[in-house]
Amino acid sequence: MKLYRYFFPFIISIPCFAQSIVVESGSKNSADDIYEMANMYRWGHGGASKDLDIAFQLYKEAAELGNADAQRDFGDYYYGGIKVKQDYSKANYWYEKAAKNNNAKAQMYLGYAYLTGKGVTVNYDKARGWLELAVKQGEPSAMYHLGTMYFDGKGVTKDENKAILLFQKSCSAGDSNACDKLKEIKTEK
User: Fold this and answer.
1) Which of 141, 134, 147 is nearest to 173 (CA)?
2) Which one, of 27, 33, 82, lies nearest residue 56 by Cα?
3) What is the per-residue pLDDT across 39-96, written as a single tens digit (0 to 9) for each?
4) What's the predicted TM-score (pTM) here?
5) What are the start-end ranges of the E strands in the chain?
6) Which residue among 20, 35, 46, 161 is least enclosed by CB atoms within 10 Å?
7) How far apart, in whole angstroms, are the C-alpha atoms of residue 42 and residue 59?
8) Signed CA dihedral, 148, 151, 153, 158: sign only
9) DSSP for 130-171?
């Protein structure tokens, strides 16, 4: 019983003396932490007041440190002209960095850029390649855009059945454009 009196306070005190984990600048954890702070300022969550200027700077820092989500979100600032002059080329630069880091949403954005020529020259092969990568990761909008390529025969052999399957998967995953396209197709038949 005496051992218990000494052992119990020792166990309780361990967290009080635990060493803090230090995150080195430039590490993956640091980029992730900065990205989370950027989101807090972008949306005004976690006790941070909404401040798009601070969020922009934090996204930039996390993007430069290699965080794929930050690279995509930083690209969004340029794509939408948020706090900067709209610049599709700069947006695509950051989307490509994120896409090469396996970010499905960025792969879809880049595929869409090559499909429509926003900030790049239209290139159906590149569009299909990026969209297929995003589809493999289950990105609903990529399914829709790849479906439009097959439906219209843009850069691929026209295949309405393949397009409809992609639209159905996209719609089931919540993409309203795909749901609308399926209704349109059904109405035309």
Assistant:
1) 141
2) 82
3) 999 999 988 999 999 999 999 999 999 999 999 999 999 999 999 999 999 999 999 9
4) 0.82
5) none
6) 20
7) 10
8) positive
9) HHHHHHHTT-HHHHHHHHHHHHHTSSS---HHHHHHHHHHHH
